[in-house]
Amino acid sequence: MAVKYQKFTHLQHIIARPDTYIGSLNLDISNQWVLNGSKETLEEKQVTHIAGLYKIYDEILVNAIDQCVVDRLIDKISIDVDEEFGSIMVTNTGSGVPVEKHDSDIMIPEMIFGELLTSSNYNDNEDRITGGRNGYGAKLTNVFSKGLWLRRHVSKTN
């Protein structure tokens, strides 16, 4: 008898059903506004893209932008695309993520970038002016990336 019912872990579900979390992983063709070759104006062009790839890029970018609200030291966000290596690096000039244990006995960088359903935006009584609130953000980028490097995003605290 074939197994009718299955149980996934949260991570298995994300990988098996990515469209639930980031959208389709199939190529799509649609009209989009893009910066023209002279980088002076926008023009509407037919673009082939993958919605899920766009979403994971958006997730990490929103995290970098959100940090500007809580860290007034940030005066720059950089996006570097290396087409040859196949990578996108998003950095900001903030004070970084503290390298210390959280009350739950897990290191804060591991919690922020690796533990699903963790967030600094769970307080529904606070006015929200930032992006994410469900605890997926950078974790989805991590799940669907070959590597997530935290260079210059981590600070040492004593």
Task: Explain briefly what this protein structure is.
With 158 residues, the chain is an alpha+beta fold.
How does this structure look, described?
The protein has 158 residues and is α+β, with helices and mostly antiparallel strands. The chain has a single domain (10-155), classed as Heat Shock Protein 90 (2-Layer Sandwich), CATH 3.30.565. Helices cover 28% and strands 22% of the residues. It is built from five helices and six strands; from the N terminus they run ααββαβββααβ. The chain has helices at residues 10-16, 18-21, 51-70, 108-114, 137-143; strands at 27-35, 42-50, 77-82, 87-92, 97-98, 154-155. The strands form three sheets. Strands 1-2 form a two-stranded antiparallel ribbon. Strands 3-4 form a two-stranded antiparallel ribbon. A hairpin with a 4-residue loop joins β3 (77-82) and β4. α3 (51-70) runs antiparallel to α5 (137-143). It is globular.
